């Protein structure tokens, strides 16, 4: 079976990380294995401070350093940039039931789109493969810019509804 | 080409990490891509403090969390224990010229053995596939327990000699 890859997209501060954190917890409680891939958003490499051991090797020049203990692994490595497919391949080694991408707007995977302001509804026109919309409270779910897409529309805070919808898709 | 896997073994405090750190630096300066795999030695999972982002996802229940930025990736994940081959497969994704294992004494890969005390020479009898011995100063390189193995013997501190020997093997 091919591992499904889903994206959670939205402008900065649209609540992607918070949404994903609750989602991961929900799916875990239902016995699903998840994996998550995120682009470090603020420029530069990921915040320092990976496992002390792996970091020492990495600083000394290892292209990749992996430390494992009691079933937990910490890995840091250098790759060509924009190697999304390699990153996905790494995550697939963990045999997840689903992989979520936070961001990577231009990728073609099915997307859950978080919209914080009406002005951001244009995102739906710009992105490929939108599958569901999560609106911040105050945005009209019957907004005319939403109509053409005919997508399931949720309001932020309806976590259970949204998560069940995702679960339904996974179980199909 | 199959990626060579070499082990650096020895009792605790025999200098494995220090040796590997210099080796990684030396090989990097010569344009070689290295990868390193280590078992977290003190029991428990690797020391906390992975990338803040990946750790949040991981704590929320993700089986694997990967954060990438400017060509550096940080990954933490859960695996069945003793999945050395999976860990090696993860490292191979980085296309290293050589992978070093620190420890994992019982594995069959070619080994560089660090010996701190004469009493530890018995290690050579216990381990499979020893290829070179590094003795701490004060141990006689002509010790009778070394003779049967007919291995290259180095003394700790002769880093350049040892590293060149390893480089020679890699270039063969």
List the strand order in the largest sheet of chain A.
2-5-1-6-7-8
The largest interface is:
A-B, 62 and 62 residues
| N-to-C SSE string of chain A, H for helix and E for strand | EHEHEEHEEHEEH
How does the major sheet of chain A shape up?
Answer: 6 strands, parallel
* Whole-angstrom Rg of chain A: 18 Å
Beginning-to-end CA distance, first to last residue of chain A: 13 Å
CATH architecture of chain A: 3-Layer(aba) Sandwich
Strand composition percent of chain A: 25-35%
Please provide a written account of the structure.
2 copies of one chain form a homodimer. Chain A is an alpha/beta fold and 172 residues long. Chain A has a single domain (5-45, 80-171), classed as P-loop containing nucleotide triphosphate hydrolases (Rossmann fold). The first copy, chain A, is built from 5 helices and 8 strands, in the order βαβαββαββαββα. The model of chain A has no long low-confidence stretch (mean pLDDT 89). At the A-B interface, helix 1, strand 2, helix 2, strand 3 and strand 4 of A face helix 1, strand 2, helix 2, strand 3 and strand 4 of B. Strand 4 of chain A pairs antiparallel with strand 4 (72-78) of chain B, so a sheet runs across the interface.
